[in-house]
């Protein structure tokens, strides 16, 4: 069956709120779930609230300028949106090896360097929208390869080009959100040809005026797919067909 790549040039994408069960109250003295056979005492970072046996850590809107240290080893969902964080810190997330959702929207990041995510092999969703990101570094010194990553939200930043060599970092990515940036060239580099699971790309509200078929050549050279495109932004035109 063919994969379906949906390239949106207008549709606004909003973050999905965490499910209510993600915020079930947790005690401050134990992270042991009812089904766990081993009790391990953990501590919630003083700036944050912890829920669901410390698997959900909410540090949003706490006037933070860095990722909290000493995150619970069991944390699966970390919310730090609405702070003043300028970088992800070297190794601050290294102990959170069970992390599957990381939300860092509405901060002051200027670069997304995947070296900071080296050990997050279970990460499935990364939201860094609403920052000031101008650069995405996908092949740093740690050689991070986030094989579990399915969704990457880079919307509402200051990118002028598409992320380069993205398959080196996220080979199994399915959703790539890039709306409301300053991208002037929508050409996908050859690394995208190996991203056979990529099915949804949002390029709405950027600075390019035309999307040509040649810009999508790398997407076509991967697994065959049918292509649906919506062009409703008057500034953006397309010659691309699938």
Explain what you see.
The strands form three sheets. This protein has a ten-stranded mixed sheet, with no helix packed on it. A two-stranded parallel ribbon has the order 6-8. The protein has a single domain, classed as Ribonuclease Inhibitor (Leucine-rich repeat, LRR (right-handed beta-alpha superhelix)). The longest helix is centred in the last third of the chain and has 4 residues, at 217-220. With 242 residues, the protein is an all-beta fold. The radius of gyration is 19 Å and the shape is globular. It is built from one helix and 14 strands; from the N terminus they run ββββββββββββαββ. The chain has one helix spanning 217-220, and strands spanning 3-8, 49-51, 56-58, 77-79, 101-103, 111-113, 125-127, 135-137, 151-153, 175-177, 200-202, 210-211, 225-230, 237-238.
């Amino acid at each position: 069956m063919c994969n379906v790549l949906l390239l949106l040039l207008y549709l606004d994408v909003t973050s999905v709120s965490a499910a209510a069960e993600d915020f079930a109250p947790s005690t401050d003295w134990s992270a042991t779930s009812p089904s766990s056979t081993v009790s391990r005492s953990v501590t919630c970072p003083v700036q944050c609230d912890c829920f669901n046996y410390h698997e959900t850590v909410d540090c949003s809107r706490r006037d933070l300028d860095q990722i909290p240290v000493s995150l619970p080893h069991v944390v699966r969902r970390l919310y730090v949106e609405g702070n003043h964080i300028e970088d992800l810190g070297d190794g601050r997330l290294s102990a959170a090896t069970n992390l599957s959702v990381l939300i860092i929207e509405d901060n002051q990041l200027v670069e997304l360097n995947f070296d900071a995510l080296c050990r997050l092999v279970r990460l499935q969703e990364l939201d860094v929208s609403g920052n000031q990101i101008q650069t995405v570094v996908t092949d740093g010194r740690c050689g991070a390869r986030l094989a579990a990553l399915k969704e990457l939200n880079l919307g509402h930043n200051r990118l002028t080009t598409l992320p380069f060599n993205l398959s080196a970092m996220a080979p199994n990515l399915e959703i790539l959100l890039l709306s409301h940036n300053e991208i002037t060239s929508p050409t996908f580099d050859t690394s995208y040809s190996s991203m056979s699971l990529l099915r949804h790309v949002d390029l709405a509200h950027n600075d390019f005026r035309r999307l040509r078929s040649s810009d999508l050549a790398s997407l076509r050279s991967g697994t065959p797919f049918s292509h649906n495109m919506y062009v409703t932004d008057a500034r953006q035109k397309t010659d691309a067909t699938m």
